[in-house]
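[09:14] KT: can someone run the structure on this one? pasting the chain below
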Amino acid sequence: MPVQRLNHAVLYVRDVEASIAFYREALGFDMVMSMPGAAFLQAPGSSNDHDLGLFQIGPAAAPSPAGRTSVGLYHLAWEVDTLEELERVRAKPAELGALVGASDHSTTKALYARDPDGLEFEVSWLVPAALLTEETLAGRTRVRPLDLDADIRRYGARTRGGVGVSIPA
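[09:31] RB: done, structure tokens below
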């Protein structure tokens, strides 16, 4: 049986309380369970038991060398249903000084941010299968700056993304 989707991610962090505060404020996650040095958070609207686990390893922890001097995870990507939601999500990481990029991958519209430990994550909207064109598919070979206003004009602010791509039609 093939893998269907990512159920949750677990991160090692320096300060679990700082990470809880960040993910709550930046993405609206709710804490569903905690214990000393650990917490489990759920994304708004998620039916998962939890979407993000956080385990504290302390303030002396070195930054992750992944992608610089070692192999390792580059980032996690969470999907939103609409471009309106992507626009709403963009505001908080920007306000927190955590937004580090916004890219148009043609079939995916993506925001990139870093948490208090410098771990990167992506929040994205996927063009639904019914709106994919040959031009859109060919555009995946290059990355352009995200123009969310233009994408909203093209696809609609409330068009459900990922239908027929990441979620069944």
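[09:33] KT: thanks! The chain has a mean pLDDT of 94.
[09:34] RB: yep, looked fine to me
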